[in-house]
């Protein structure tokens, strides 16, 4: 990983907030020099923010802060870091940012790619053939999706878009670098298709309750993670309903 980061002149500053959802912690990425740009400040942990600010200073100061989405483990430290860096601009889709970003917008050297699914405001940032994917693609395992209208449909389209970019490395919001982006994105797409096939088979077999549907399609998920799986289940059921393929008596999670 160190060789790849050196080749792209990217620094990783990882927050000390490990958990089943954040894996080894939130990855904050610092790219470029004179000035550098920061992607995802992470949680408001003082030691972490100071480490990010120190890396920015080593690189000749910061030009701006890009935020992939407004979940606290990625965005909570934004304002504190912005103040540390002297009030640099913040670019995001929904966060209280002074530069509102949408698909295709530039932000310094970064190009914005809309990747909703994990969150409706989720963005990916491209720097050459490197992608900074936040929680749209993580280094280990798969992302959970938030049941916003059309979330799964939009997420699958976003994955296809990322796959078509022929990136050479993915710098995720959690976990290690992804050195074969196409294989990873193929895995993600196949994973969603497999979940849907198992879910449809369970429904056709007469399963109707949330627990029965989780048993049918998320049988590999530990008990502690079933509530998270139920969130993603809701997005799959929404998609089937939108396509006219969901029986009316299926129990649906409400969020």
H/E series:
HEEEHEHHEEEEEEHEHHH
Structure annotation, total helices: 8
Q: What is the top-level CATH class?
A: Alpha Beta
Look up the CATH topology.
Metallo-beta-lactamase, Chain A
Over the alpha carbons, how many angstroms does the gyration radius reach?
A: 19 Å
Architecture overview:
The chain is α/β, with parallel strands linked by helices and 255 residues long. The protein has a single domain (2-180), classed as Ribonuclease Z/Hydroxyacylglutathione hydrolase-like (Metallo-beta-lactamase, Chain A, 4-Layer Sandwich). Helices cover 37% and strands 18% of the residues. The chain is built from eight helices and eleven strands. Helix 6 (181-204) crosses helix 7 (210-217). The longest helix is centred in the C-terminal third of the chain and has 24 residues, at 181-204. It is elongated.
Q: What's the topology here?
A:
Layout: H1 2-8, E1 10-14, E2 27-31, E3 36-39, H2 46-58, E4 62-66, H3 72-75, H4 78-84, E5 90-92, E6 99-100, E7 106-107, E8 110-114, E9 123-127, E10 130-134, H5 151-164, E11 169-172, H6 181-204, H7 210-217, H8 226-242
Parallel strand pairs: 3-4, 4-5, 5-6, 10-11
Antiparallel strand pairs: 1-2, 2-3, 7-8, 8-9, 9-10
Helix pairs in contact: 5-6, 6-7
Organism: Svornostia abyssi
Protein name: MBL fold metallo-hydrolase
Pfam families: Lactamase_B (PF00753), WHD_BLACT (PF17778)
């Amino acid at each position: 990983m160190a060789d790849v980061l050196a080749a792209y002149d990217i620094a990783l500053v990882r927050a000390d907030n490990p958990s089943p959802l954040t894996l080894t912690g939130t990855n904050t990425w610092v790219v470029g020099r004179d000035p550098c740009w920061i992607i995802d400040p992470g949680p408001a942990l003082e030691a972490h923010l100071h480490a990010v600010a120190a890396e920015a200073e080593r690189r000749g100061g910061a030009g701006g802060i890009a935020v992939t989405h407004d979940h606290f483990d990625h965005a909570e430290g934004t304002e504190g870091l912005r103040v540390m860096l002297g009030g640099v601009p913040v670019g995001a889709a929904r966060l209280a940012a002074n530069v509102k970003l949408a698909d295709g917008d530039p932000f310094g050297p970064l190009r914005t790619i809309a990747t909703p699914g994990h969150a409706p405001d989720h963005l990916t940032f491209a720097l050459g053939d490197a992608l900074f994917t936040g929680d749209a693609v993580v280094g280990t395992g798969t992302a959970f999706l938030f049941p916003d209208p059309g979330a799964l449909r939009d997420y699958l389209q976003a994955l296809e878009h990322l796959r078509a970019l022929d990136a050479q490395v993915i710098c995720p919001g959690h976990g290690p670098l992804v050195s074969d982006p196409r294989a990873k994105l193929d895995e993600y797409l196949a994973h969603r298709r497999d979940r849907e096939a198992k879910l449809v088979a369970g429904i056709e077999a007469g399963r109707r309750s949330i627990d029965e549907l989780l048993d049918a399609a998320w049988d590999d998920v530990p008990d502690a993670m079933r509530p998270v799986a139920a969130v993603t289940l809701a997005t799959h059921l929404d998609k089937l309903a939108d396509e006219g393929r969901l029986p009316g008596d299926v129990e649906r999670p409400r969020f």
